[in-house]
Amino acid sequence: xxxxxxxxxxxxxxxxxxxxxxxxxxxxxxxxxxxxxxxxxxxxxxxxxxxxxxxxxxxxxxxxxxxxxxxxxxxxxxxxxxxxxxxxxxxxxxxxxxxxxxxxxxxxxxxxxxxxxxxxxxxxxxxxxxxxxxxxxxxxxxxxxxxxxxxxxxxxxxxxxxxxxxxxxxxxxxxxxxxxxxxxxxxxxxxxxxxxxxxxxxxxxxxxxxxxxxxxxxxxxxxxxxxxxxxxxxxxxxxxxxxxxxxxxxxxxxxxxxxxxxxxxxxxxxxxxxxxxxxxxxxxxxxxxxxxxxxxxxxxxxxxxxxxxxxxxxxxxxxxxxxxxxxxxxxxxxxxxxxxxxxxxxxxxxxxxxxxxxxxxxxxxxxxxxxxxxxxxxxxxxxxxxxxxxxxxxxxxxxxxxxxxxxxxxxxxxxxxxxxxxxxxxxxxxxxxxxxxxxxxxxxxxxxxxxxxxxxxxxxxxxxxxxxxxxxxxxxxxxxxxxxxxxxxxxxxxxxxxxxxxxxxxxxxxxxxxxxxxxxxxxxxxxxxxxxxxxxxxxxxxxxxxxxxxxxxxxxxxxxxxxxxxxxxxxxxxxxxxxxxxxxxxxxxxxxxxxxxxxxxxxxxxxxxxxxxxxxxxxxxxxxxxxxxxxxxxxxxxxxxxxxxxxxxxxxxxxxxxxxxxxxxxxxxxxxxxxxxxxxxxxxxxxxxxxxxxxxxxxxxxxxxxxxxxxxxxxxxxxxxxxxxxxxxxxxxxxxxxxxxxxxxxxxxxxxxxxxxxxxxxxxxxxxxxxxxxxxxxxxxxxxxxxxxxxxxxxxxxxxxxxxxxxxxxxxxxxxxxxxxxxxxxxxxxxxxxxxxxxxxxxxxxxxxxxxxxxxxxxxxxxxxxxxxxxxxxx
Length: 875
Fold this sequence. Notes:
Layout: E1 7-10, E2 16-21, H1 27-35, H2 39-46, H3 53-60, E3 68-75, E4 78-87, E5 93-100, H4 109-123, E6 128-134, H5 138-146, E7 150-153, E8 159-165, H6 170-192, E9 197-200, H7 209-219, E10 226-229, E11 235-236, E12 239-242, E13 254-257, H8 261-274, E14 278-281, H9 290-302, E15 305-307, E16 313-316, E17 323-326, E18 334-341, H10 344-357, E19 361-366, H11 375-384, E20 390-394, H12 401-412, E21 417-420, H13 435-439, H14 442-453, E22 456-458, H15 461-473, E23 481-486, H16 489-501, E24 505-506, H17 511-520, E25 531-532, H18 539-550, E26 557-561, H19 574-577, E27 584-588, E28 596-598, E29 607-609, H20 612-629, H21 644-651, E30 656-657, H22 660-669, E31 678-681, H23 687-693, E32 697-703, E33 715-719, H24 721-736, E34 740-747, E35 753-762, E36 766-773, H25 777-781, E37 784-788, H26 793-801, H27 806-809, H28 816-832, E38 836-847, E39 850-853, E40 856-860
Parallel strand pairs: 5-6, 9-10, 9-13, 10-12, 13-14, 14-15, 18-19, 18-20, 20-21, 21-22, 23-24, 23-25, 23-26, 26-27, 27-29
Antiparallel strand pairs: 1-2, 2-3, 3-4, 4-5, 6-8, 7-8, 11-12, 16-17, 16-19, 28-29, 30-40, 31-34, 32-33, 32-34, 35-36, 35-38, 36-37, 38-39, 38-40
């Protein structure tokens, strides 16, 4: 049997370890770990003197099976911790035990091993972990209690009977991510706060990348020791050189590699042997080659953190440890903007744009081909880095989007998180076999991830800079009600149009505000929103008008659009008006050279845009972010399923499209309303169904290749009487011939509106819940909204409001609450049954007193997805 490679993970001090399942070949190491326990640890483990250690070690290291599982933690090749469980006979309980070397006990080894046991146990259907612990063994009791699982321990006596419930629990995920963030930040300190640096491959020629990296480092103010590895020079830019990594005078904490691919791989290996803790590989040409494989292997073997390869580099402006290990063309100002980007070009463009605005960065990490350090790592770093007040991401791919969503959501609660959308095309969409799958494009899935995590998403670097400027110099708006004040009527109208396109609300100015404006403005001025002061007003009069609008309680934000005239320049009055006010104000100066600039150079009064549409777009994004911040985080509780285990048992082992009868049974087990349904095989008699259902009924063909039943002639409505039911059955047999598998027979449903509700599960992103117009409107109108499961009540409300037709749809008497409940039940089904690859409820008939699915298709795939929240590094 081949031994599983396991996965790299981080301890609390940032050290990289390997966690993997144990096998018989590990018996000697397990025995060695137990024999070197202290006297007290031995007493705690065995409640006295041990006996039969050889047999115990062999049992722990037995191959994983239905009743046994064990994992070990390896630190620099040595086994330093073991945890295992043994399933109790005929139960879903397992007894758990663990042993950790005293030398690493404070580093979180026990907790890390327990998390891996929990993840595996849940996959196998276990419900509880049990343990018997001596009352005086406080350390182990704390490990179990602090895991984040529901925990109980008996009271009294020399021993404690411990019970840990393995149910999915947000509190447990929060605890895991908190531990992950602490460990990750500790490991990234080697990268972002290095005590010493080596530049490997810096050349004497100014035009080379390595020379540029060294020059930027020299100019950055880094105060730690620096050496260069270059066999052809003794000194470059005043920095001493040595011929090889082995000959460095000290082991650097961080090394940056700027060499051709074969030499780069060798350098990374040498860094690992030397004990370097973090490496930045700027070199390209590694991915997809044996040299790239060597780099990955070295990172795994020696426990290093790695950025790249094929990247721009890394910089930090932390006053305590400033450094620049990039080949940017100019220095970066210190600031509060943290950036992680897969694209070096995006990093360069953003750095230049921010410099032009006078804004600076806290950190810049260019991940390149992303062998190790990723956007998720930086989200965890920024959580603890209070210098970073705006987080910016450019991600071309997601290694672990479910973890990303939880991390980004946590960070976005405290500061804005921005992302540039990439890969919005649908070329990667697989052939869709259901309406839901057709709607669940990669772009829709990614956008749902961003929206639910509170990420402010943009499509271009220019839009990104627009939003950063708005966030940097103004408060978040208190709501969507916007007023436009302009001394040029056309600019005001364009601004109002842009606001309405972006979903903002044009505020109704109060009578008092309009009276105040009438007193200060010319008679020909427009005092309703948008306010047109006319071009003839002075800067002072324009300022007074702006103050009047800002004082209106019905206004949340203002766009002030001004043009210079021979009479004066009202734009010069804005700076004096804005500081005392506590509402968001953006300036617009049509024709200014820059797309966005500070209203007053060198100050942070507000952002001034060259076009009203840009200002409105930024304002709309900030409004949506503010609304997200104010949404309740609590999940709406559904009545518990009567028998969730029966639902899981039904799904176990299934693959492919369910038969219509099985699909109906799936909905019954999931408590999802479905119209009464009978299914008749193509070769069977229709007599029983015709007699049971009475009339009128609808007959629906189940035929190979028939997705659009109505358009394909597979639906016969309002069939009355047993004779006509039999005749309709024969018609479908004739129409579809050998392709007909069977016929679904249902009573005619009451009239109502038809919707589509479905699920499309992605092995990386997880299940996506889709809502849209159903029936014949599904493909004709293609009006859909989507959110990733699990849905909260707020998510369900956003789905209900997310259709283009939502306003008209819910203006009538339709039972919105019933559809909301259905969405939450479908989300629960997707979470409970990860094997569910596609679910298509189309149509769902909605009435004034409820909703019911009229048709269902469901497809299952084996669940091969990895636990997205298990702590491990990329391999």
